[in-house]
Write the structure tokens for this entry.
Amino acid sequence: METKSKEIIWTEPAVHDLQDIYNYLTERSLPAANKIISLLTAAPESIARSGFTKSIAIDEYNPKYRRIIAGNYKILFTVRKDIIVIHRIFDTRQNPEKLKKL
């Protein structure tokens, strides 16, 4: 049986997070910025194709979200039927208490 891929929706705050990450990294290295952005956008795609979104870990700091770890970043998302909603991207080197406020 073939698994149906889920649609991915990026919220405005998540897109803003991506832009902030990209802007920060381009000040240091454009190739590194491109690599990280590719990693961050590919991670949700891989779980959307796998169909295992419900088995992805619930975030320990904000349990209303599931999380994907990609490099030094945590991607917070929810699942609604056949849609994955990306809410935020959080640099795991920051204070995790910030996640409780999202």
